[in-house]
């Protein structure tokens, strides 16, 4: 397997570095900038290549450009002989359908995406990361996936947007929640550094609990305790983030219902507190 990458950003560099560590032959990188191609090639002990060279020398090609460039890259690729080549893009949201007329070119095309947030170009510790793969004839690349020690699941084309939304919730929006927490602590008089120092152990302990106990058994706080007076105080003191608190609170309430540790009366009372503003608005429209 001779592997080439089109795109030398965080994902392309990191995944190429990972595959090199797994014993694969990386033939090279093509990127819009010479500097990026040389960096990635040096990292993977491969070569910076022009577009045509990379297509010719690679039988496994990974497109690791931003999503809005993938179709343009494919439209450029179809001018070359793609017979018997395996071609992947690594977008979370887009499916393999973007490779129009792939079969007519004699190629096999897939989307392969890691559930991972790449902080830099050398984030190659991917052994525990779960990947999604989507496309026709998955069995044709199973040997590669197993040899690369990739933990994966197969998904349908139509589920890619929902899948990617899941990734956004547990990655991007975790950062957004940390920002909300920091903003509230700043209002309490903490400075940015101390607020970050306060938030991190709390978030880390929540993730550790999920790892050890699973999601449902890791929920703590006033909702799982049925502490309605605390929930009311929160709602009364959150003018800016009340709606976010409400929506997430309703999700937490789903967990409580699944666990069955509160009475139906207590659950209904919490629900009414969380939806108090919505109920008032509905009444005003009658």
UniProtKB/TrEMBL annotation:
Domain of life assignment: Bacteria
Domain DUF2520: 130-249
Source organism of the structure: Anaerosalibacter bizertensis
Protein name, as recorded: DUF2520 domain-containing protein
InterPro entries the UniProt entry points to: 6-PGluconate_DH-like_C_sf (IPR008927), DUF2520 (IPR018931), NAD(P)-bd_dom_sf (IPR036291), OxRdtase/DH_put_Rossmann_dom (IPR019665), TM1727-like_C_sf (IPR037108)
PANTHER family: CONSERVED HYPOTHETICAL ALANINE AND LEUCINE RICH PROTEIN
Residue intervals of the Putative oxidoreductase/dehydrogenase Rossmann-like domain: 2-114
């Amino acid at each position: 397997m001779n592997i080439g990458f089109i795109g030398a950003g965080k994902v392309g560099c990191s995944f190429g570095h990972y595959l090199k560590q797994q014993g694969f032959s990386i033939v090279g990188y093509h990127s819009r900038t010479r500097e990026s191609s040389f960096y990635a090639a040096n990292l993977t002990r491969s070569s910076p290549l022009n577009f045509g060279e990379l297509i010719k020398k690679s039988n496994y090609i990974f497109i690791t450009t931003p999503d809005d460039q993938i179709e343009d890259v494919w439209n450029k690729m179809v001018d070359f002989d793609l017979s018997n080549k395996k071609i992947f893009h690594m977008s979370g949201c887009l499916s393999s359908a973007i490779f129009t007329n792939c079969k007519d070119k004699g190629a096999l095309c897939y989307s392969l995406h890691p559930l991972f947030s790449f902080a830099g170009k050398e984030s190659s510790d991917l052994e525990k990361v779960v990947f999604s793969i989507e496309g026709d004839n998955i069995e044709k690349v199973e040997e590669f996936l197993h040899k690369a020690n990739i933990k994966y699941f197969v998904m349908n084309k139509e589920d890619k947007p929902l899948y990617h939304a899941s990734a956004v919730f547990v990655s991007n929006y975790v950062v957004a929640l940390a920002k909300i927490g920091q903003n509230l602590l700043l209002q309490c008089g903490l400075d940015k550094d101390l607020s970050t120092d306060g938030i991190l152990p709390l978030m880390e302990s929540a993730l550790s609990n999920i790892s050890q106990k699973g999601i449902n058994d890791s929920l703590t706080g006033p909702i799982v305790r049925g502490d309605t007076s605390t929930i009311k105080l929160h709602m009364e003191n959150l003018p800016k983030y009340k709606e976010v608190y409400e929506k997430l609170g309703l999700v937490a309430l789903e967990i409580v219902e699944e666990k069955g540790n509160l009475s139906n009366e207590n659950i209904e009372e919490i629900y009414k507190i969380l939806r108090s503003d919505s109920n008032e608005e509905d009444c005003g429209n009658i």
